[in-house]
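Case study 2.
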Amino acid sequence: MGASLSAGPSPASDFLGHPKGVFVCFFTEMWERFSFYGMKALLLLYILKYHLFGDDAGFDLLGAYGGLVYAVPVIGGLLADRYLGMRKAVVLGGVLLVLGHLGMAYEGEQARIVDGVVVRDEAALQVFYLSLALIIMGVGFLKPNISTIVGKLYAPEDPRRDSGFTLFYAGINVGALFASLVCAFLGETYGWKYGFGAAGIGMIAGLIVFIWGQKYLYGLAEPNDPAKLRERVGPLSREWWIYIGSFAGAALVWQLIQRTWTVHGAMHLIAAALAVWFIWFLVRHCTQVERQQMLALVLLIIGVLIFFTLYEQTYGSWVTFTDRMLTKDLFGLTPGNYQPGIPWAIFALASSPVLMVTALRASDRGHGGLAKAAVITMVVALAIALVHDVVLVPQTAGSLTFLGAFFIVVLAPIFSWLWPWLDRRGLNPSKPAKMAVGLVFAGLAFVPLMLAAQSAGSGVLASVWWLVLAYFLLELGEMCLSPIGLSAVTQLSVPRVVGLMMGAFWLATAYSEVLAAQFGKLTSMEVLEGETFDMAVAATRYADLFQPMLWIGVGSGIAYFVLSPLVRRWMHGVR
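Prediction:
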């Protein structure tokens, strides 16, 4: 890239008040999250219903997958920073994701029970495990680097920076919102391969638009030292060794994901090692102020870990509870002779790559009216499809996971107004106080589910609206926690270990997946062949999980309220 390009975007290259590269990143991330959450909404149901895993084994696999998905980006971000550059890392991640999601579409033969023994298609299972490994590695390269590119498109003092990230994060939520409505619905209604295949096609669309739109990144996502990347190490360049290493890493994860106890054990060991290092670093290398700030940071990270241990029940125990114990039709407006059709969202999403490319090309040529019309058409089409697919289409256990992203989309504008409004009046809560409120709401989210379990214990499916209320309370909690996390790491960490603490934050998120799976196993039920599903027993099992989740959330929230003044003092002015 020439020097003129690496200088960054000029005002003339903006579209709707932001660099065009932001819209390319928005679209890429939208499709990556579409494929990721679409697959995740189906994952547990697929392994339980198609491959006939027991509940315990299903939760163990879900925890191992989730843990690795959040751990590997630490490596992907490091390789991009030091060698590969963000653009190439995103393309590599996209290719791995496409291969993984399309591999998930291969079902093989459905497992069956013969003389009381589960007989599975072992070859299909190996394809399934390999596909999970490719997805894990793909997320590891794409996820940490696409958001970094967005930051690079703005000068540090650019006042549009925050709104640009708001726009980018909207892409995450739009992708997650439609993922369940499309992928989970197709998978549970027509066949698992169609749901997983839709996720793969979505990722192909995102990758194509990213490659087409590379010119809008203006050289800002290139390797820091291209010569070092081209340098030969043995028979190949360093760049090619990284590519080969990524597939070798996928082969390693392929084996690890089949041995879930290894992944869970490694997470426990890493958590213990980080705790030992942290104590040693505090004692030997920190001043009193640094020590207190680092302690405040760790308390915030632990709060995030607790919150996401509760939150990740949404893709585990909440899915099986919805499948087994709740009605699915939200509004009861489905015609009596309704036959499952194709979600309208498919058509709206299929048109979005064309409309996005049209908008950016029209803007390049000075046709601002056409560009805006293309964007408006895309937004209106998605909105109409959303209303149709939510109101008139009966949902499935997997598709109802759309409620999380839906409430984020609804609540985010309210909270983005609320925090500055409180701040102007001197009432904006501190980070530990927001943490406390978020944890309390996360705990309270399990109250509607406890009531639903009690209702379903009589043998009649409980109303799906208990689940809607649970998601609403949970997302209120997430909105309180959203200002906390990565910003706290950069503000409170000792500068010389900020990268390590950033890694610790992501590893804590990974560890929460493992813990969530272990808690989810409290609901495990093994229904033997020929037996009927006992809803009274199931209600008791789910209550055995929901009640401790309630007390963990509310109890830890109260603890953070009590500790809030102390933690605020330890932060030494950081807000």
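The two ends are 40 Å apart (CA to CA).
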